[in-house]
């Protein structure tokens, strides 16, 4: 089964993905992106970091299951060959997910929308910047992300298999267990 995680920025998708990969035997599908690595990110582990030309070559070769353009025109995509078999987990955008549904076998895909309230997401974003380093540029980025995410995830509940809430104070293990228990019911 392939678990697809969707949700606004800061909802906790990457954290859940890492839990599933580290403790529950799911292989992480490594995406390709044209964005630059952040401090501490490793090529081939967090993403395959690539450039616009190489990304276009993959796209023209027809080997991508899906791709999407996200913040600052950055491209993100994943390979068709990654969706064929195995127990895997991937973080996608709603557009990417809709392409996967069209381009890949559907019966082994289990999709989860991860939600958290706006206050929690803003707090997590500020924590990531460091409260003492937070400035006007960051404030603008929070507003941009929030507005974009609002439209992007509106109504998505109806397209997924499970909706989980991951707010401040929620134990991430409870969220992961809910995902695994529900996924098992789909996997019989
Ligand atoms: N369509 C698609 N979206 C992806 C893929 N990998 C990551 N994303 C999306 O890109 C978003 C941005 O990720 P990232 O650049 O790591 O930074 P973040 O905004 O801080 O989470 C994620 O929230 C995902 O929704 C992919 O392979 N395909
Ligand atoms: N249930 C939780 N309890 C405490 N911290 C959490 C929880 N879920 C996520 N976080 C923290 O919130 C931040 C954003 O989570 P992340 O997984 O990067 O979100 P996303 O991938 O959706 O943008 C991270 O610092 C993460 O450690």
Describe the 3D structure:
The chain has 188 residues and is an alpha/beta fold. It has a single domain (2-183), classed as 3-Layer(aba) Sandwich (Rossmann fold), CATH 3.40.50. It has six helices and nine strands, in the order βαβββαβββαβααβα. The strands form two sheets. A five-stranded parallel sheet has the order 2-7-1-8-9, sandwiched between helices. β5 and β6 (74-79) form a beta hairpin. The longest helix is centred in the last third of the chain and has 18 residues, at 136-153. The termini are close together. The mean pLDDT is 94. Bound molecules: guanosine-5'-diphosphate and adenosine-5'-diphosphate (ADP). Guanosine-5'-diphosphate (GDP) is lined by residues 9, 31, 35, 66, 68, 70, 76-78, 91-93, 96.
């Amino acid at each position: 089964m392939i678990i697809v995680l969707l949700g606004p920025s800061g909802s906790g998708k990457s954290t859940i993905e890492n839990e599933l990969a580290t403790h529950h035997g799911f292989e992480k599908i490594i995406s390709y992106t044209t964005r630059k690595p952040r401090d501490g990110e490793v090529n081939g582990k967090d993403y395959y970091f690539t450039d616009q030309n190489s990304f276009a070559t993959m796209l023209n070769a027809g080997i991508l299951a899906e791709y999407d353009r996200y913040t600052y025109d950055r491209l993100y995509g994943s390979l068709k060959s990654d969706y064929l078999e195995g127990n895997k987990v991937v973080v996608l955008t709603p557009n990417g997910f809709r392409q996967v549904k069209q381009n890949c076998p559907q019966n082994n895909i289990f999709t989860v929308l991860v939600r958290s309230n706006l206050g929690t997401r803003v707090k997590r974003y500020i924590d990531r910047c460091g409260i003492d380093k937070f400035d006007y540029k960051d404030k603008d980025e929070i507003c941009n992300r929030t507005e974009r995410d609002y439209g992007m995830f509106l109504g998505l509940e109806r397209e997924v298999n499970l909706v989980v809430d991951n707010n401040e104070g929620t134990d991430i293990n409870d969220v992961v267990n809910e995902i695994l228990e529900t996924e098992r019911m789909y996997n019989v």
